[in-house]
Amino acid sequence: RMITQVLIGILSGAAILTAGILIGHYGISQSSSGAPPSWLKDVAKDVDESLIEKFLSEVDNIQIQENLRELTKVPHMATTAGDEQTVQFMLKRWQDPETGLDQAWREEYMVYLSFPDPKNPNKVTVGDPSDTVLHTAREKEKSYTPDQDDPEVVQPYAAYSPAGHAKGKLVYANQGKPSDYQLLNQTIDLRGTVAITRYGGAGRAAKAINAAPYGVLGVLVYTDPLDINDGLMSDIDETYPHSWYLPPSGVERGSFNTHYGDLLTPYLAAKEETYRIPAENITGIPHIPIQPIGFEDAYTLICDVKLDIFNHEEVKNSSNVMGVIRGSVEPDRYVIYGNHRDSWVHGAIDPSSGTSVMLELTRVLGSLVQQGKWRPRRSMIFGSWGAEEFGLIGSAEYTEQYFAKLSERTVAYVNVDIAVFANATLRASGMPSVQNILFAAAKQVDAPGLDSTSVYDNWVRYANRTSPAVGYLSGAGSDYAAFVHYLGITSMDISYTYDRTKTNARIYPAYHTAYDTFDYASRFIDPGFVSHQAIARTAGNVLIRLADSLVLPLNCSDYAEILEDYLGTAMTLYEHQLRARNISMGKDIMQVNVFIPAPPLSLHRSCLRPLKVRRINDQLMLLDRAFLDPLAFPDKHAYRHVIWASSDAGKPTFPGLADAFATAESSGQSRHWDKVHYHLSVLSQAIEGAAHTLVDVI
């Protein structure tokens, strides 16, 4: 009963908006005098279904294939010559007079990056007590195609690992979680050891950050074949180049930091003249050396292990490539579509599958604009983000530079990073309000390789439920992070993925290795590029609907359902213990001061003017902004969304409350229980505030 009370405001607001949608379609058909006003045709512009059908028909899988072939010709790690080559390629395509956008340009930032020393490679060796070297780990991955022999293939390394030398007895620390080191330390003195961990369970940087307090000197991390290869290990006939599985020498590179954005300019855009904090004040990076290796070497390492890490940091120029199609009616309302451009090596899947899709999508839309056949109601902004692999830097700096404008004007952000993990089914995550538009778009797209089956129907089949599950954007796994957590912009992430009943792979096996190439993508991930085509059609359909709909197709009632689920979980997990400590969920979260909304808007045909449509859309656009609290997570850089912030507790409920409760339960200290009370109050006021944004009038 009380859960229902909490949601009355939001659900009532949704009802008001439903009425508003009806009015939006029918209420401005004529002026009070009976004659259509002069501005009617433009202002009444709505989604043209025939335009969507035309868009779907013109998305070409062969064009996507050729985009990917071009993008993966050379490695293009951020700020390298290969990266600049992709910048020029994007600009050329987006400035094409026949198929380009209205405008395209580069946006430059001076960012703090970490690289290995090509003249002094990082080394991992096994020695005996007399320091005789018994084994040296590979410094580069085994070559199977000319791609691995490219001199620009960067040695596997852990970006932002400090330089240093560590030697000690090797201990296996599972996934490097706090609980793993705590358990080990009960039976082993970890001081002076080197830990070896497997990917998964904890973030990359956390594996070393968690180890340091126990006196561990250095950390190795490898990809376990049980986690990525379904246990297969032989490159004679089991792994790439014979299948999609990772060869024994494959090494997952990555950024080993816990924050996103440029590390020297937190909350500021990293322009040349921007103030930078001292490098020694950076938080969220390891303070002991860490190095990734292949499972081939992981199975060989024994006894004493030595790490010699020669990474170095420098500030370098990194570019976003930006493009825009200006809106015809509301040019000051933005729908943003983005994907990062940089990769660790050739990056066929991550990220070039997404970039190749974005290029095809913009080719089709650009052609329609250049031919004068169409222009969106709202402006479309396209972002090819730089330096994502080092910590979502390009997109984060963009949101910091244009914080005010984006906060006030952005309707939604669509992220397509890895467009195709595999070719089985759609996968989508986003705010609950985007669920309906994702479903609508997926229903209009044919599932690749299946007759008379839509992407939506195929998605339902794999979900094994009446409707597909849309995930949440609760972490910082891609460039949606700054839009969701920092700006509170309604966002989504879309891809095609694999059948999880047929593999235990935590991600596609060549991820962040030298084997993520055009050959790999075209042979094992998406032969024929029809899944790429399906993603381009689905994401483009979503984009057009967000940009062209008279009333934004965002559903508040879906948001209310998720909040109800979160509240139910919170009651089940926490209410009993909180009551025992005289902390009342009844006062703080279950009995929100519910307002009585104004009566629904009149449905009189002449009632709704353009400003009313605008007001309704602004209510929808700004709903997620109401959940922002800049003080809720002082220890989490740029996390401000109290519903979707990351959480260490692993509970399907409000993140701040879950983490505060876990800390208080572990420590038992009154100050930590006070923090639980604080987060209850944060939630109470955020939910009430969000509901009030949906009221018709004050």
From TrEMBL:
Classification via InterPro entries: PA_dom_sf, PA_domain, Peptidase_M28, Peptidase_M28B, TFR-like_dimer_dom, TFR-like_dimer_dom_sf
SUPFAM superfamilies in the cross-refs: PA domain, Transferrin receptor-like dimerisation domain, Zn-dependent exopeptidases
Keywords, alphabetical: Aminopeptidase, Calcium, Disulfide bond, Glycoprotein, Hydrolase, Membrane, Metal-binding, Metalloprotease, Protease, Transmembrane, Transmembrane helix, Zinc
Residue ranges of domain PA in the record: 167-255
One Pfam family per UniProt: TFR_dimer
Highest taxon of source: Eukaryota
GO biological process, one term: proteolysis
Entry keyword Membrane: yes
Its membrane topology: Single-pass type II membrane protein
GO cellular component, one term: apical plasma membrane
Molecular-function annotations in GO: aminopeptidase activity; carboxypeptidase activity; metal ion binding; metallopeptidase activity
Domain Peptidase M28: from-to ranges: 320-522
Subcellular location(s) per record: Apical cell membrane
Co-factor requirement: Zn(2+)
Family statement drawn from the similarity comment of this UniProt entry: Belongs to the peptidase M28 family. M28B subfamily.
PANTHER family in the cross-refs: AMINOPEPTIDASE NAALADL1 (PTHR10404:SF50), N-ACETYLATED-ALPHA-LINKED ACIDIC DIPEPTIDASE (PTHR10404)
Protein purpose: Aminopeptidase with broad substrate specificity. Has lower activity with substrates that have Asp or Glu in the P2' position, or Pro in the P3' position. Lacks activity with substrates that have both Pro in the P3' position and Asp or Glu in the P2' position. Lacks carboxypeptidase activity. Lacks dipeptidyl-peptidase IV type activity.
Name by which UniProt lists this protein: Aminopeptidase NAALADL1
